[in-house]
C-alpha cells in the first residue's frame, strides 16, 4: 500500500538555493530510483513464486488422498506423462524445494536492496532535508 501522506513544499523549501545538486548527488538519486524499480519487480516475482509454492502444496495435499496404485498425469514441458503417485510426490517435493530456494534468494535481494535504499536515503536527506522526497 502506498503512503499517501504527501504535502506541498512551502515557498521557502521550494526556492531553497543554498543546496546545489552535484553530479554525485544526482547519481545517488538515480541509484535510489533504480533500486526502487528493482524492488518493485522483485516483489512481483516473489508474489508469483509464493503463489506457485501454494499451488504445489495444494497439489501435494490432494495427492495424499489418491490411491498409490493409480497413474497421475504429470506435465513435463508441453507433454503429460502418466507416473505413479510416489514418483509424482517426489517430483513435487523437489519442485517445492527449488521454489523455496528461489524465494529465499529473492528475499535476500529485497533485503539487500532495502539496506542500500536506506543508506542512500540517509545520505540524501542529510544533504537535502525537506527539499527531497524519497518516500515510496
TrEMBL record:
* Superkingdom of origin organism: Eukaryota
SUPFAM superfamilies registered for this protein in UniProt: Prefoldin
- Which GO cellular component term is one of those annotated? cytoplasm
**Protein name (database record):** Prefoldin subunit 4
Supply the alphabetized keyword list.
Answer: Chaperone
The UniProt function text for this chain reads: Binds specifically to cytosolic chaperonin (c-CPN) and transfers target proteins to it. Binds to nascent polypeptide chain and promotes folding in an environment in which there are many competing pathways for nonnative proteins.
Compositional bias of type Basic and acidic residues: which residue ranges?
41-54
A single MF term (Gene Ontology) = unfolded protein binding
Keyword Zinc included in the entry's annotation: no
Q: Where is the composition biased (Polar residues)?
A: 27-36
Task: Tell me the organism.
Answer: Terfezia boudieri ATCC MYA-4762
Tell me how this protein assembles: Heterohexamer of two PFD-alpha type and four PFD-beta type subunits.
Gene Ontology terms describing biological process: protein folding
What protein family does this chain belong to? Belongs to the prefoldin subunit beta family.
* Disordered as annotated region, ranges: 1-54
Amino acid at each position: 500500500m502506498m503512503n499517501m501522506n504527501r504535502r506541498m513544499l512551502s515557498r521557502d523549501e521550494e526556492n531553497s538555493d543554498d543546496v546545489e545538486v552535484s553530479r554525485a548527488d544526482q547519481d545517488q538519486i538515480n541509484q535510489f530510483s533504480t533500486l526502487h524499480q528493482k524492488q518493485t519487480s522483485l516483489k512481483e516475482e516473489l508474489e508469483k513464486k509464493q503463489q506457485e509454492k501454494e499451488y504445489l502444496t495444494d497439489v501435494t495435499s490432494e495427492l495424499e488422498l489418491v490411491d498409490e496404485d493409480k497413474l497421475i498425469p504429470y506435465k513435463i514441458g508441453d507433454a503429460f506423462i502418466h507416473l505413479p503417485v510416489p514418483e509424482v510426490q517426489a517430483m513435487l517435493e523437489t519442485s517445492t524445494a527449488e521454489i523455496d530456494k528461489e524465494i529465499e534468494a529473492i528475499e535476500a535481494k529485497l533485503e539487500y536492496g532495502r539496506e542500500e535504499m536506506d543508506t542512500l536515503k540517509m545520505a540524501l536527506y542529510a544533504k537535502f532535508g525537506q527539499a527531497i522526497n524519497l518516500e515510496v
